[in-house]
Amino acid sequence: MSGSASGFVLVADIGGTHARFALVGEDGEAVNPVVLRCADYDGPAPAIKAYLSDQGAGAAPRRGAFAVASVIDGDRIELTNSPWRFSISETQRAVGLERLEVVNDFTAVALSVRHLKPEHLLTIGGGAAQAGLPIAVLGPGTGLGVSALIPGESGRWTALATEGGHVTMAAASEREARILDRLRTQFDHVSAERVLSGQGLVNLYQAVAALSGHQAVFSTPDVITKRGLDGSCPISREAVETFFAMMGTVAGNLALSLGAKGGVFIAGGILPRMADAFRASSFRTRFEAHGRFQPYLAAIPTWLITHPLPAFVGLAGLIRPKADHRTLA
Length: 329
Hints:
Blueprint lengths: L8 E6 L3 E7 L5 E8 L6 H11 L8 E6 L7 E3 L6 E3 H7 L4 E6 H8 L8 E3 L11 E6 L3 E8 L5 E5 L12 H11 L13 H14 L9 H9 L4 H25 L5 E3 L8 H5 L3 H6 L5 H5 L3 E4 L4 H9 L6 E4 L1
Parallel strand pairs: 1-4, 4-7, 9-12, 11-14, 12-13
Antiparallel strand pairs: 1-2, 2-3, 5-6, 8-13, 9-10, 10-11
């Protein structure tokens, strides 16, 4: 990197599998984004040092804003689906930051949604968003992230840090009930994340295979998705279709719980890669399928976020001098 980067802010989106880093300037744009595998480093500090060393001698940011796939409760961070365990304060000292803010990863995504451009949103049904009303955010990746934006006084918004991905998954059909019953033989608690995540898709595939009297021959979400979408494997196809439908159930439940008439935004690392299939799926029908409240949900718009790094957009807003929002853990 040419010139001094001390005026830049180091941003990081640390998930269960990958850690993404970039530098953000005063214009809020992320530059030099890099994706590193968490398994290749002992923790965030070595990964950050490796990233900054590649940016040149001038890369010495004084401030940082990180999004992590974890509950934020004190100084210690234990990622939900990763072996990384670290201290916020020790990491700050190790990489020479004067200030470091850490938020839940889906809190950062929630902070992004009011700043995303139309070309980074795929509309999937519903009416028009109502201004100044709650906004729901969720999405499957390594886990299932859930957050929300709640309007407050003077135009300020509060982003909620939640663990909504761990709510109990409910069946909406006899077939889904049998699938969940099968998964209960494997897990004490079948949460939404047990079926709506990368591993969740594998869990669905294995359950469908068992119920259909077939052997589960695939073990990765990428292969199951490919074989399901191209129609070459009926078991994979049912798993993917069930995944889409259950996303609709969970998103509808969240919209009802929040009164999210400001809309529902869906993010995560899985669905943008199969956006067309998701849009054509039963997701929206299941989103609205809540009995007497079908008309209520039919009016709420749902969008798929297609921006490759929405958390960076949110983190840039978090550190903006006159930010119009705050976070609430």
